[in-house]
Amino acid sequence: MNFLDEIHIYIAPLLTAITGWAAGIIFERIVLAKLQRLMAKIRWSNDTVIIHALRGKMIYLFILGGLYGASLGLPLKPAYLQIVHKFLQIAAIIIVTAIGSATVSGFMTNYTKRESANLPSVSIFTNLARAVVFGIGILISLQALGISITPILTALGVGGLAVALALQDTLSNLFSGLQLIAARQFKPGDYVKLSSGEEGVVTDISWRTTTIRLLANNLVIIPNAKLAGAIITNFQQPTSQMSFPVEVFISFKNDLAKVEAVTKEVAKAVLRDIPGGVAEVEPVVRFNAYLETGIKIVVSFRINEFTDQFPIRHEFIKRLHQRYHEEGIEFSNLVRGIIQ
User: Fold this and answer.
1) Which 8-state DSSP code applies to residue 27?
2) Helical packing angle, 58-72 and 78-113, nearest 10°
């Protein structure tokens, strides 16, 4: 066989491999784009999940298909051809597993984000979904290689106790996280305060830890097992609206009727002007106690969320100080504008 004949043998497989690569590019750039537009018309909530799962991965499946077709035209010994086909098969299984993992985790994320869902949107579900899909993919790959998975499953069953003992802290955090989610005592987006003093917005519940973002924009990472046993105040449940008090101390010399009227007027104006206040619910002004240095007043405001209290508190103190000065109302001699 001369050189030209040898070249001719490899031309057809090479063209087959190039065709698979070209078909993959066409699918990625044309077919997927049309599929995305079609799904957008039917307004399916999971259209972006499908497109995202397929994009960047389908081209490799077409390339593998081209290589498989090319291998059939190569003058390879049956043993070598079988090895090549096994390799291509395993590669295809890995790609399909990646597509399945992205699809399942995307569906899970969309489902938990829907208002009608009973589950919060947390990464623990997507991580578990990925783990299950990849576990199935690994078992299928082993089966494709001719490795029996029955002894493996048996060994896992026998060694399950040893694994559970070795990973008891990890499993404790995992099941504690599932318990926290099932109990629905808080979810991402809720503002909570722990018995240890930390308070902030829950950002995520993962398979091991729960993340809370403090008002200072720092993150507190708490193991789920410890959080399950902590005392937690959730400022979002049963409703995000809440009341917060502002304490003011005035002198005995003041006319209390005038103090009450002026204080309520200022408080109502603040609720009306500052975002976050519930203006429909009038603030409550109560004379709370006689102290050695004066009279204690408690002003209660109704707000939409926990963090709304800070700008309202700030503006109320500023306006109240100015108004008391204009009206000749005196604060107590030793305590002036103490806020708790």
Assistant:
1) I
2) 170
Give the tens place of pLDDT for each residue, 41-66.
766 666 677 777 888 888 888 888 88
Is residue 312 a contact partner of residue 270, using CB atoms and an 8 Å limit?
yes
Q: Which residues contact 89 (CB under 8 A, 6 or more apart)?
A: 144
d(C-alpha 46, C-alpha 102), whole Å: 12
Place of tokens 């099932």: 182
Residue-wise pLDDT for 299-324, tens only, equals: 999 999 888 999 999 999 999 999 99
Give the C-alpha separation, 279 to 270, whole Å.
9
CA distance 129 to 124: 9
Q: Which of 178, 234, 183, 169 is nearest to 207 (CA)?
A: 178
282 alpha-carbon distance from chain centroid? 36
Closest to 14 measured CA to CA, from 67, 86, 92: 67
Whose tokens are 């203006």? That residue is 279
What pTM did the predictor assign?
0.54
d(CA 179, CA 117) in angstroms, rounded, equals: 17
